[in-house]
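Subject: Predicted fold for GNAT family N-acetyltransferase, 324 residues

User T.R. writes:
Posting the sequence so we have a shared reference for the thread.
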Amino acid sequence: MIRKMRQPDDYAAVAPLLNTIWSEPTTAERLKEEEDKIPPGKLNYDEADELTGWDRPKWVAENEHGQVIAYAIAWRAPWTEPGTLIHTVVVHPEHRGSGVGGALYNALQLWAREVKASRLIDFIRETDDRSLAFAERRGYVKERHTFESVLDLASFDSGALDDSILGAERAGIRFITLAEEPGEASERNLYELYKVTNPDIPGYVGDFPWFEEWKKWNLDQDGVRPEWIHIAKDGDRYVGVVTLQRNEQTQAMYQEYTGVLREYRGRHIALALKMLGVKTARDCGAPYLRTHNDSMNGPMLHINRDRIGFRAEPGSYKMVRALR
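User M.O. replies:
I've generated the C-alpha coordinates; pasting them so everyone works from the same file.
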Protein backbone atom coordinates (compact mmCIF):
# COMPACT_ATOMS: atom_id res chain seq x y z
CA MET A 1 0.00 0.00 0.00
CA ILE A 2 1.24 3.46 -0.94
CA ARG A 3 0.34 6.30 1.44
CA LYS A 4 1.52 9.73 2.47
CA MET A 5 4.22 9.62 5.13
CA ARG A 6 3.10 10.20 8.72
CA GLN A 7 5.39 12.61 10.52
CA PRO A 8 7.14 12.03 12.86
CA ASP A 9 5.93 8.44 13.30
CA ASP A 10 7.52 7.04 10.13
CA TYR A 11 10.99 8.52 10.62
CA ALA A 12 12.13 5.49 12.62
CA ALA A 13 11.46 3.29 9.57
CA VAL A 14 12.65 5.78 6.95
CA ALA A 15 16.11 6.44 8.43
CA PRO A 16 17.31 2.81 7.99
CA LEU A 17 16.07 2.87 4.40
CA LEU A 18 18.06 6.01 3.62
CA ASN A 19 21.11 4.47 5.27
CA THR A 20 21.13 1.78 2.58
CA ILE A 21 21.90 4.41 -0.09
CA TRP A 22 23.62 7.30 1.73
CA SER A 23 27.37 7.29 2.31
CA GLU A 24 26.95 8.65 5.86
CA PRO A 25 24.17 7.37 8.17
CA THR A 26 21.31 9.42 9.54
CA THR A 27 18.81 8.96 12.36
CA ALA A 28 15.08 9.48 12.85
CA GLU A 29 15.88 12.34 15.23
CA ARG A 30 18.05 14.10 12.69
CA LEU A 31 15.45 13.74 9.94
CA LYS A 32 12.82 15.27 12.22
CA GLU A 33 15.13 18.14 13.24
CA GLU A 34 15.75 18.99 9.59
CA GLU A 35 12.07 18.79 8.73
CA ASP A 36 11.18 21.09 11.62
CA LYS A 37 13.36 23.80 10.03
CA ILE A 38 11.29 23.86 6.84
CA PRO A 39 8.21 26.10 6.58
CA PRO A 40 4.92 24.73 5.22
CA GLY A 41 4.92 24.15 1.49
CA LYS A 42 3.76 26.93 -0.78
CA LEU A 43 4.27 26.48 -4.51
CA ASN A 44 4.06 29.30 -7.04
CA TYR A 45 4.80 29.92 -10.71
CA ASP A 46 7.00 32.51 -12.38
CA GLU A 47 6.25 34.60 -15.46
CA ALA A 48 7.25 31.67 -17.68
CA ASP A 49 4.78 29.42 -15.81
CA GLU A 50 7.66 27.47 -14.27
CA LEU A 51 7.23 25.98 -10.82
CA THR A 52 8.73 27.99 -7.94
CA GLY A 53 8.43 28.13 -4.15
CA TRP A 54 8.59 25.46 -1.45
CA ASP A 55 7.24 21.99 -0.95
CA ARG A 56 8.38 18.61 0.37
CA PRO A 57 5.76 15.81 0.03
CA LYS A 58 6.71 12.31 1.15
CA TRP A 59 5.28 8.87 0.57
CA VAL A 60 5.91 5.39 1.99
CA ALA A 61 5.00 1.89 0.90
CA GLU A 62 3.87 -0.73 3.43
CA ASN A 63 3.84 -4.48 3.13
CA GLU A 64 0.94 -6.69 4.17
CA HIS A 65 2.10 -6.49 7.80
CA GLY A 66 2.04 -2.70 7.88
CA GLN A 67 5.84 -2.39 7.81
CA VAL A 68 7.37 0.49 5.86
CA ILE A 69 9.49 -1.03 3.10
CA ALA A 70 10.01 1.95 0.76
CA TYR A 71 10.13 5.74 0.87
CA ALA A 72 9.96 8.62 -1.58
CA ILE A 73 10.35 12.38 -1.27
CA ALA A 74 10.05 15.19 -3.81
CA TRP A 75 11.25 18.62 -2.81
CA ARG A 76 12.22 22.06 -3.91
CA ALA A 77 13.16 25.34 -2.18
CA PRO A 78 12.76 28.92 -3.45
CA TRP A 79 16.38 28.92 -4.64
CA THR A 80 15.98 25.66 -6.60
CA GLU A 81 16.04 26.17 -10.37
CA PRO A 82 12.51 27.05 -11.60
CA GLY A 83 10.51 24.06 -12.77
CA THR A 84 12.73 21.56 -10.97
CA LEU A 85 11.84 18.94 -8.36
CA ILE A 86 14.56 16.89 -6.69
CA HIS A 87 13.56 13.49 -5.41
CA THR A 88 14.69 10.28 -3.76
CA VAL A 89 13.08 6.85 -4.03
CA VAL A 90 14.49 4.01 -1.93
CA VAL A 91 13.24 0.44 -1.46
CA HIS A 92 14.41 -2.02 1.18
CA PRO A 93 16.93 -4.38 -0.48
CA GLU A 94 14.75 -7.44 0.27
CA HIS A 95 11.81 -5.92 -1.62
CA ARG A 96 13.57 -4.58 -4.68
CA GLY A 97 12.26 -6.01 -7.93
CA SER A 98 8.78 -6.55 -6.50
CA GLY A 99 7.21 -3.53 -8.20
CA VAL A 100 6.92 -1.45 -5.05
CA GLY A 101 9.53 1.03 -6.26
CA GLY A 102 7.63 1.57 -9.51
CA ALA A 103 4.35 2.10 -7.65
CA LEU A 104 5.96 4.59 -5.29
CA TYR A 105 7.63 6.44 -8.16
CA ASN A 106 4.32 6.61 -10.02
CA ALA A 107 2.73 8.37 -7.03
CA LEU A 108 5.59 10.86 -6.94
CA GLN A 109 5.48 11.42 -10.71
CA LEU A 110 1.70 11.95 -10.66
CA TRP A 111 2.08 14.68 -8.05
CA ALA A 112 4.95 16.25 -10.02
CA ARG A 113 2.76 16.48 -13.11
CA GLU A 114 -0.16 17.88 -11.10
CA VAL A 115 2.02 20.78 -9.90
CA LYS A 116 3.36 21.26 -13.45
CA ALA A 117 7.02 20.53 -12.75
CA SER A 118 9.14 20.60 -15.89
CA ARG A 119 11.89 18.24 -14.80
CA LEU A 120 12.80 15.71 -12.13
CA ILE A 121 16.26 15.14 -10.66
CA ASP A 122 17.53 12.14 -8.72
CA PHE A 123 21.03 11.34 -7.45
CA ILE A 124 21.92 7.65 -7.75
CA ARG A 125 25.07 5.85 -6.62
CA GLU A 126 27.25 4.98 -9.59
CA THR A 127 27.51 1.36 -8.38
CA ASP A 128 23.72 0.89 -8.12
CA ASP A 129 23.15 -0.62 -11.54
CA ARG A 130 19.54 -1.63 -10.84
CA SER A 131 18.50 1.87 -9.81
CA LEU A 132 20.32 3.42 -12.76
CA ALA A 133 18.52 1.03 -15.11
CA PHE A 134 15.20 1.82 -13.35
CA ALA A 135 15.77 5.54 -13.99
CA GLU A 136 16.92 5.14 -17.57
CA ARG A 137 13.85 3.06 -18.45
CA ARG A 138 11.78 6.03 -17.32
CA GLY A 139 13.60 8.53 -19.48
CA TYR A 140 16.30 9.81 -17.14
CA VAL A 141 19.70 10.73 -18.53
CA LYS A 142 23.03 11.24 -16.77
CA GLU A 143 23.79 14.93 -16.52
CA ARG A 144 26.69 15.10 -14.03
CA HIS A 145 29.00 12.82 -12.06
CA THR A 146 30.00 13.57 -8.47
CA PHE A 147 32.93 11.74 -6.87
CA GLU A 148 33.32 10.84 -3.21
CA SER A 149 36.75 10.82 -1.55
CA VAL A 150 37.85 9.56 1.88
CA LEU A 151 40.98 10.31 3.89
CA ASP A 152 41.94 7.72 6.53
CA LEU A 153 43.21 9.92 9.33
CA ALA A 154 44.91 7.25 11.45
CA SER A 155 47.46 6.55 8.73
CA PHE A 156 47.69 10.04 7.26
CA ASP A 157 51.11 11.68 7.27
CA SER A 158 50.83 15.40 6.57
CA GLY A 159 54.55 15.73 5.87
CA ALA A 160 55.44 18.80 3.85
CA LEU A 161 51.78 19.66 3.27
CA ASP A 162 51.79 21.60 6.54
CA ASP A 163 54.10 24.06 4.82
CA SER A 164 51.12 25.27 2.80
CA ILE A 165 49.72 26.90 5.93
CA LEU A 166 53.00 28.61 6.76
CA GLY A 167 53.45 29.69 3.16
CA ALA A 168 50.04 31.33 3.04
CA GLU A 169 50.70 33.07 6.35
CA ARG A 170 54.04 34.38 5.10
CA ALA A 171 52.17 35.83 2.11
CA GLY A 172 49.94 37.82 4.45
CA ILE A 173 46.97 35.46 4.86
CA ARG A 174 45.67 34.96 8.38
CA PHE A 175 43.67 31.90 9.41
CA ILE A 176 40.97 32.00 12.06
CA THR A 177 37.89 30.00 13.00
CA LEU A 178 34.40 31.41 13.23
CA ALA A 179 34.62 30.77 16.97
CA GLU A 180 37.38 33.38 17.15
CA GLU A 181 35.20 36.00 15.44
CA PRO A 182 31.65 35.24 16.59
CA GLY A 183 28.62 37.37 15.85
CA GLU A 184 26.30 38.32 13.03
CA ALA A 185 28.80 40.60 11.28
CA SER A 186 31.22 37.67 10.82
CA GLU A 187 28.38 35.37 9.78
CA ARG A 188 27.28 37.84 7.12
CA ASN A 189 30.87 38.15 5.86
CA LEU A 190 30.98 34.37 5.59
CA TYR A 191 27.61 34.34 3.85
CA GLU A 192 28.91 36.73 1.20
CA LEU A 193 31.96 34.51 0.68
CA TYR A 194 29.71 31.46 0.15
CA LYS A 195 27.42 33.42 -2.14
CA VAL A 196 30.28 34.58 -4.37
CA THR A 197 32.11 31.24 -4.55
CA ASN A 198 29.12 28.85 -4.89
CA PRO A 199 28.41 29.68 -8.55
CA ASP A 200 31.97 28.61 -9.43
CA ILE A 201 31.17 25.00 -8.51
CA PRO A 202 30.73 23.02 -11.75
CA GLY A 203 27.07 22.15 -12.25
CA TYR A 204 25.77 24.77 -9.83
CA VAL A 205 22.32 26.01 -10.85
CA GLY A 206 19.54 28.00 -9.26
CA ASP A 207 19.66 30.98 -6.95
CA PHE A 208 21.40 31.39 -3.61
CA PRO A 209 19.34 31.36 -0.39
CA TRP A 210 18.93 34.49 1.65
CA PHE A 211 21.01 34.92 4.80
CA GLU A 212 18.60 33.42 7.33
CA GLU A 213 18.05 30.25 5.28
CA TRP A 214 21.74 29.93 4.48
CA LYS A 215 22.57 30.18 8.18
CA LYS A 216 19.94 27.57 9.03
CA TRP A 217 21.43 25.01 6.65
CA ASN A 218 25.12 25.82 7.06
CA LEU A 219 25.91 27.25 10.50
CA ASP A 220 23.02 25.85 12.52
CA GLN A 221 23.19 22.34 11.10
CA ASP A 222 23.59 19.39 13.43
CA GLY A 223 27.30 18.51 13.60
CA VAL A 224 28.61 21.96 12.61
CA ARG A 225 30.45 24.09 15.17
CA PRO A 226 32.08 27.53 14.85
CA GLU A 227 35.49 26.09 15.77
CA TRP A 228 35.22 23.70 12.81
CA ILE A 229 34.80 26.52 10.28
CA HIS A 230 38.23 27.72 9.14
CA ILE A 231 38.42 31.10 7.44
CA ALA A 232 41.26 32.67 5.46
CA LYS A 233 41.53 36.46 5.84
CA ASP A 234 43.45 39.11 3.94
CA GLY A 235 43.30 42.04 6.32
CA ASP A 236 39.64 42.24 7.32
CA ARG A 237 38.41 40.50 4.16
CA TYR A 238 37.19 36.89 4.21
CA VAL A 239 38.82 35.26 1.17
CA GLY A 240 38.48 31.53 1.79
CA VAL A 241 36.70 28.96 3.95
CA VAL A 242 36.50 25.28 4.74
CA THR A 243 33.61 23.93 6.82
CA LEU A 244 33.55 20.57 8.62
CA GLN A 245 30.52 18.64 9.84
CA ARG A 246 30.68 15.69 12.25
CA ASN A 247 28.42 12.64 12.12
CA GLU A 248 27.74 11.63 15.71
CA GLN A 249 27.06 8.00 14.72
CA THR A 250 30.42 7.40 13.06
CA GLN A 251 32.36 10.26 14.72
CA ALA A 252 33.74 10.90 11.24
CA MET A 253 33.80 14.34 9.64
CA TYR A 254 32.60 15.63 6.30
CA GLN A 255 34.46 18.41 4.51
CA GLU A 256 31.18 20.08 3.67
CA TYR A 257 32.35 23.17 1.80
CA THR A 258 35.55 24.72 0.49
CA GLY A 259 35.62 28.07 -1.28
CA VAL A 260 38.24 30.68 -2.20
CA LEU A 261 37.65 33.98 -3.97
CA ARG A 262 38.77 33.86 -7.61
CA GLU A 263 41.43 36.56 -7.23
CA TYR A 264 43.07 34.56 -4.43
CA ARG A 265 43.24 31.22 -6.21
CA GLY A 266 46.57 29.77 -7.21
CA ARG A 267 48.15 30.78 -3.89
CA HIS A 268 47.59 27.40 -2.16
CA ILE A 269 45.00 28.91 0.17
CA ALA A 270 42.51 26.11 -0.50
CA LEU A 271 45.21 23.54 0.27
CA ALA A 272 46.08 25.35 3.51
CA LEU A 273 42.41 25.50 4.54
CA LYS A 274 41.95 21.82 3.80
CA MET A 275 45.03 20.97 5.85
CA LEU A 276 43.61 22.97 8.76
CA GLY A 277 40.45 20.90 8.34
CA VAL A 278 42.49 17.69 8.43
CA LYS A 279 44.20 18.83 11.63
CA THR A 280 40.86 19.66 13.22
CA ALA A 281 39.40 16.29 12.29
CA ARG A 282 42.42 14.45 13.72
CA ASP A 283 42.33 16.51 16.91
CA CYS A 284 38.65 15.57 17.33
CA GLY A 285 39.48 11.87 16.97
CA ALA A 286 37.62 11.40 13.69
CA PRO A 287 38.54 8.08 12.05
CA TYR A 288 38.20 9.52 8.56
CA LEU A 289 37.36 12.65 6.61
CA ARG A 290 34.96 12.46 3.67
CA THR A 291 34.29 14.95 0.89
CA HIS A 292 32.77 15.13 -2.57
CA ASN A 293 33.55 16.93 -5.83
CA ASP A 294 31.99 17.28 -9.24
CA SER A 295 33.92 15.31 -11.86
CA MET A 296 34.60 18.59 -13.70
CA ASN A 297 36.12 20.28 -10.65
CA GLY A 298 39.69 19.44 -11.57
CA PRO A 299 41.46 21.86 -9.18
CA MET A 300 39.69 20.53 -6.08
CA LEU A 301 40.07 16.91 -7.16
CA HIS A 302 43.79 17.56 -7.66
CA ILE A 303 44.14 19.01 -4.16
CA ASN A 304 42.12 16.27 -2.50
CA ARG A 305 43.49 13.22 -4.27
CA ASP A 306 46.90 14.16 -5.67
CA ARG A 307 48.16 16.56 -3.00
CA ILE A 308 46.50 15.35 0.21
CA GLY A 309 45.88 11.71 -0.64
CA PHE A 310 42.12 11.21 -0.36
CA ARG A 311 41.07 7.76 -1.53
CA ALA A 312 38.59 7.58 -4.41
CA GLU A 313 35.18 6.17 -3.46
CA PRO A 314 32.14 5.42 -5.64
CA GLY A 315 30.22 8.58 -6.37
CA SER A 316 26.80 9.46 -7.75
CA TYR A 317 25.20 10.39 -11.04
CA LYS A 318 22.81 13.30 -11.34
CA MET A 319 19.93 11.78 -13.29
CA VAL A 320 17.51 14.16 -15.02
CA ARG A 321 14.13 13.57 -16.65
CA ALA A 322 12.26 16.21 -18.64
CA LEU A 323 8.51 16.21 -18.02
CA ARG A 324 7.63 18.77 -20.72
